[in-house]
Write a structure and sequence with these properties.
Number of strands: 11
Number of helices: 16
Shape: globular
Strand order of the largest sheet: 4-6-5-10-11-9-7-8
Helix content: 25-40%
């Protein structure tokens, strides 16, 4: 007999609308699993049990009083919010001791969108301090653990979100990505992760992302679930610096999932260029399998050079570090509490303060010129295939066993592919097509043209149909 946590979110929404499943029953099922087994995974920082049940009861009243066509699309579907986004009346820690007692006065824009769509909020998922690292370990909660191997990390910074979905502690999760933070955990947890186009989802009302690196997005088990979440999350606010072109009137991202992509032209690369960062054999094997699957489906696949060298002249890594440090320096922190920050976050802020403004501006300018060159060089492709990461999931404690400089080096070696597309603002997904001999998921990354999440969703759905992955679940799924 199928259990509730085995059902995708789109199926849960359908069963709620048909009155075959109660929102209260669904929410209670997930809350019971969180109480019973989240100690293994560290997915949640805060669980909002009473609020979730109240929301579920209100959703049930709506189901019984309204016709199905008048119900919001995610009514009664429970999901968590990453603890970098504000959920009104709930603790907002940012994964940091300096904000461990902060309570959000209002929803962020993306949370408000999900609330309007009828979602039930289970709580807040674990994140590294201010989302600054590619693993999820902080000073206020136990580390998040990968459900496929709990000695390993689920990645970051949306590691708690991915752990929740992979462990069956949520059907889907809201996440965010400023340098790979959706695609990294999706890649190592066997999930589908979507970083939307820059400007598709507002960071408002409070988050200022002047360099446009970060965006919210979904982590899910199915492509259709991700499309439904993107339809619900997409929003722009007055004053946003970036906006994405809207879909044609009456069209949705979910429509693209149900549409064949046609024969696409796809570029591919798996080297790390002049950085010389080695790529693990399991990652290369996953890349070759993804390539062959694309060819089998009738797509044209062409080898291309690594854009980091051809478009950015080999300065990408150094220039991106300036932007990443600048983001860290912009976080408001009481000077008297700077010493409570984690070593890597203090180091990033110190680097930013030591960087002259002209150096930062020059780095930003080089990255913009590189983006223009890369987009021109890849304009003939509908998508570009690369590995999501250079290595399989890393052990807990792997990154922070040395000093901050060593930690940043290890993170760079782990994630040489993802941040490029935060700089360019292109939509990008991690697709779970391969598991290693040791049973670890290895994600493959597909990146589309700016504003074209639709093609990525159509292609990803075709891959999902050709090589289904939802049946592949970690051992603890049965508990």
């Amino acid at each position: 007999m199928t259990r509730i946590h085995e059902l995708p979110a789109h199926r849960l929404a359908t069963l709620v609308r048909s009155r075959e499943l109660s929102p209260v029953e669904i929410t209670e099922h997930y809350l019971e699993r969180i109480r019973r087994i989240d100690e293994r995974y560290g997915a949640y920082i805060t669980v909002t049990e009473e609020n979730a049940l109240e929301q579920a009861r209100n959703a049930q009243k709506s189901v019984m009083s309204d016709t199905p066509d008048e119900l919001p699309p995610l009514l009664g579907v429970p999901l968590p919010v990453k603890d970098l986004d504000a959920l009104a009346g709930v603790r907002l820690t940012f994964g940091s001791r300096v904000h461990s007692d902060l309570v959000a006065p209002a929803d962020s824009a993306v949370v408000a969108q999900l609330r309007d769509a009828g979602a039930v909020f289970l709580g807040k998922t674990n994140t590294p301090e201010f989302g600054a690292t590619c693993y999820t370990e902080n000073d206020i909660a136990p580390p998040s653990r990968n459900p496929w191997d709990t000695t390993r990390s689920p990645g970051g910074s949306s590691g708690g979100a991915a752990a929740a979905v992979a462990a069956g502690l949520a059907p889907v999760a809201q996440a965010s990505d400023g340098g790979g933070s959706i695609r990294i955990p999706a890649g190592v947890c066997g999930l589908f992760g979507l970083k939307p186009t820059r400007g598709r989802i507002s960071g408002g009302p409070d988050r200022a992302d002047l360099n446009g690196l970060s965006t919210a997005g979904p982590i899910t088990r199915s492509v259709l679930d991700a499309a439904l979440m993107l339809d619900a999350m997409a929003v722009n606010l007055p004053g946003d610096l970036y906006t994405a072109p809207p879909l044609p009137s009456g069209r949705t991202f979910a429509d693209h999932v149900l549409r064949e992509p046609g024969r696409l032209r796809i570029g591919r690369y798996a080297d790390t260029g002049s950085t010389g960062i080695p790529v693990h054999p399991d990652v290369l094997a996953a890349h070759e399998e993804a390539t062959q699957l694309l060819l089998d489906l009738g797509h044209e696949v062409e080898e291309i050079e690594n854009p980091v060298d051809t478009a950015f002249g080999g300065t990408f890594a150094e220039d991106f570090q300036h932007l990443w440090a600048a983001v860290a320096s912009a976080t408001p922190v009481d000077p008297a509490r700077e010493g409570e920050l984690t070593p890597i976050y203090r180091w990033l802020r110190e680097r930013a303060r030591a960087t002259p403004v002209p150096v930062y501006v020059a780095a930003s300018a080089r990255l913009q010129r590189g983006t223009r060159a890369m987009l021109a060089a890849t304009a003939r492709f509908d998508a570009v295939l690369s590995p999501t990461l250079a290595q399989p999931a890393a052990p807990i404690g792997h990154f922070n066993s040395g000093g901050p400089e060593e930690e940043f080096r290890l993170m760079t070696e782990f994630t040489p592919f993802t941040s490029l597309y935060n700089v360019s603002g292109q939509p990008s997904v991690s697709v779970p097509l391969y598991w290693s001999r040791s049973g670890l998921p290895i994600g493959s990354m597909l990146t589309g043209q700016p504003g074209d999440e639709g093609t990525l969703l159509s292609l990803s759905a075709q891959l999902e149909q050709a090589r289904p992955w939802a049946h592949r679940v970690p051992e603890g799924w049965a508990d």
